């Protein structure tokens, strides 16, 4: 044991030397915080290299102890429940669909055959009819028919047959069968004549397509381009004919915007100043606005201005025309 302590002392001395070498010349600068942080970082790197794996081992041991404690707790909890009855793995789980199917009445079996209750079926409660039935069953002399009851069939087709359905032909005493044979198809489920005759849409399209294969020409790029050129030529010919007819009648033809552009594209302005409003100021200029260069103020609207500052076309105003109107206004007060 003592040699191990010597080894630890040697390791600590070596670590101190490493720290001194890395922090050589920084002892006089201990006042600065950055130097102190650097020295602490070096010491932690050197002295705590072997502490990290030891701490990891300690954490693993603690986690193992926690897991063992949890297992012991679970075992102690479930000790008393060991004798609980376990469900058999082979037992089928509950299926709601199957339960509904079992609740539905079976069309292919006669319910009257399964109505004989064994608990109440005793000799003391038998009637004469019951005795005759038992005797006939023993001797196999029962007069049974394979004919299906017509009332039963109509009830099944109209969705009226169920657990509470009673046959109008004597109820349970009806001699005909109240079940369908296997493979029997009802009228409502039979395909109609129209459905049999109707063909699918794909077959009809194929039949019509085969009729036009021999007569038509295959469409290619060249044939399509030719067709477009011919169509454009026909349109141009029609337009020329219409123009000639209108000219003969003496009517003037108005050109569209597209035609004007093709005729003379310089008529159209497509620049930044295409919609400049300064060019249209004079058109929308009002009389009340003061404009220095306006010819209306210099020369008047309809004539020139005299030396006295009056227009030649000015008309004198007759004030007597407005006297009556002023009297009417006084009466309103």
UniProtKB/TrEMBL annotation:
Ranges of biased composition (kind: Acidic residues): 322-333
GO CC annotations on file: cytosol
Keywords annotated in UniProt: Metal-binding, Zinc, Zinc-finger
Zn-finger region bounds: C3H1-type: 143-181
Regions of compositional bias (Basic and acidic residues) in chain numbering: 51-67
One function term, GO molecular function aspect: zinc ion binding
PANTHER family, alphabetized: ZINC FINGER CCCH DOMAIN-CONTAINING PROTEIN 15 (PTHR12681:SF0), ZINC FINGER-CONTAINING PROTEIN P48ZNF (PTHR12681)
Protein name as it appears in the record: Zinc finger protein, putative
Organism per entry: Plasmodium vinckei
Organism classification: Eukaryota, Sar, Alveolata, Apicomplexa, Aconoidasida
């Amino acid at each position: 044991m003592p040699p191990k302590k010597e080894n630890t002392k040697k390791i600590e001395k070596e670590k101190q030397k490493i720290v001194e070498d890395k922090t050589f010349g920084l002892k006089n600068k201990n006042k600065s915080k950055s130097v102190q942080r650097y020295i602490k970082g070096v010491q932690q790197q050197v002295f705590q290299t072997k502490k990290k794996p030891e701490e990891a081992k300690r954490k693993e041991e603690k986690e193992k102890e926690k897991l063992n404690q949890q297992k012991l707790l679970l075992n102690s909890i479930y000790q008393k429940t060991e004798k609980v009855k376990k469900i058999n793995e082979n037992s089928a789980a509950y299926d709601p669909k199957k339960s509904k199917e079992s609740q539905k009445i079976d069309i292919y079996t006669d319910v009257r055959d399964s109505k004989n209750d064994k608990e109440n079926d005793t000799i003391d409660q038998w009637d004469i009819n019951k005795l005759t039935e038992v005797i006939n069953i023993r001797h196999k002399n029962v007069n049974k028919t394979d004919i299906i009851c017509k009332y039963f069939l109509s009830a099944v087709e109209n969705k009226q047959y169920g657990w509470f359905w009673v046959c109008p032909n004597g109820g349970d005493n009806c001699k005909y069968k109240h079940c369908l044979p296997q493979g029997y198809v009802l009228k409502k489920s039979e395909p109609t004549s129209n459905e049999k005759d109707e063909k699918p849409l794909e077959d009809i399209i194929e039949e019509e397509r085969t009729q036009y294969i021999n007569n038509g020409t295959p469409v290619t790029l060249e044939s399509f381009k030719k067709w477009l050129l011919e169509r454009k030529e026909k349109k141009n010919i029609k337009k020329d004919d219409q123009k000639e007819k209108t000219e003969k009648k003496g009517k003037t033809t108005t050109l569209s915007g597209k035609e004007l552009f093709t005729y003379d594209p310089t008529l159209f302005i497509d620049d930044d100043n295409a919609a400049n409003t300064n060019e249209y100021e004079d058109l929308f200029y009002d009389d009340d606005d003061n404009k220095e260069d306006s010819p209306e103020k210099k020369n008047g609207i309809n004539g020139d201005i005299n030396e006295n500052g009056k227009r030649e076309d000015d008309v004198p105003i007759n004030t007597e025309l407005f006297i009556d109107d002023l009297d009417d206004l006084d009466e309103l007060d």
